[in-house]
Write a structure and sequence with these properties.
Layout (H helix, E strand, L loop, with lengths): L2 E6 L5 H12 L2 E4 H9 L5 H9 L9 H19 L4 E4 L3 H4 L6 E7 L2 H12 L3 H23 L11 E4 L5 H14 L7 H22 L8 E6 L2 E8 L2 H12 L6 E9 L4
Parallel strand pairs: 1-3, 1-4, 2-3, 4-5, 7-8
Antiparallel strand pairs: 6-7
């Protein structure tokens, strides 16, 4: 009953692998678009959400806080989508947005450039040089995006539990391997403790998103942790009344029992 995230470069077979895994395991297969739709239901622009997720650093430099808000909404939507388990997610930084949840199996799939070019040329009808330029540009944007937001290298194998290279094995063989792993490895099963971790992550992400959506607190950038209904919030506020408003918004989130604001301090004291 795990959650599986599939990370990949453009046209590296990640979506195909995610669909194969979902079919083999009987899980739901969820892509970025579904999470964007869920996040956009909060009343924000679908295209603006996509821009925040896909555009490299520099595009929204004048609107860094807007990007923070949109990513908070996206993380909340993703955490809520996967918290019940039995789901394969392929899309933006799922392994990073769900960081800390032990039941998440983080897969990365890579493929030789020749295979990627062949898939791209076939799908988008691009020439060899056009296809290569496209892949290099998209990969570089993802590198910059990951470094900018999370301070890590997208290709770093330490970020993943397993990395598969499709040079000499195919998607079906990778799917069989992951199927065996997920069924035999106890650490990726959905124990009550693991489910509680995902539910805590969903609550913390929703508190952060709702504070970002709430007009009196929408200018704040906070970090939130949740455990068993107890929420701790840290960050800066500019006025005392903002602490009360953050607390009010947090307590209104289903599942929140108490709120600790000891580390939400006036900016002059930080």
């Amino acid at each position: 009953m795990s959650v599986i995230t599939v990370s990949r470069g453009s046209f590296s077979g990640g979506k195909t692998l995610a669909e194969c895994l979902a079919g083999r395991l009987g899980y739901r297969c969820v892509g970025r678009e579904a999470i964007v739709e869920r996040a956009a239901a909060s009343g924000v622009s679908h295209q603006d959400l996509l821009d925040a997720l896909l555009k490299p650093p520099g595009f929204l430099d004048r609107f860094k806080h807007t990007r923070y808000q949109y990513l908070a909404l996206f993380q909340a939507a993703l955490a809520e989508e996967v918290k019940s388990g039995e789901v394969v997610y392929h899309g933006n930084a799922g392994h990073l947005m769900l960081k800390g949840a032990r039941s998440v199996l983080r897969i990365r799939v890579v493929a030789p450039i020749e295979k990627r070019l062949a898939m791209l040329e076939d799908k988008l009808n691009l020439t060899g040089s056009e296809a290569l330029d496209y892949i290099q540009r998209v990969d570089e944007e993802r590198r910059k995006w990951t470094r900018y937001l999370y301070g890590v290298a997208w290709e770093d194998p330490v970020l993943y539990d397993v990395v598969y290279n499709l040079e000499n094995i195919n998607i079906d063989q990778v799917c069989n391997s992951i199927n065996t792993l997920i069924r035999s490895c106890q650490c990726f099963q959905f124990s009550p403790e693991c489910q509680a971790e995902l539910e805590d992550l969903a609550i913390a992400s929703r508190v952060r998103a709702n504070v970002a959506l709430n007009p009196p607190t929408s200018h704040l950038e906070i970090e939130v942790e949740a455990k068993g209904g107890h929420v701790a919030i840290r960050g800066k506020v500019t006025e005392t009344d903002e602490r009360k408003e953050v607390e009010r918004v947090a307590l209104a989130v289903p599942g929140v029992a108490t709120v600790n604001l000891d580390e939400l301090m006036p900016s002059t004291q930080v």
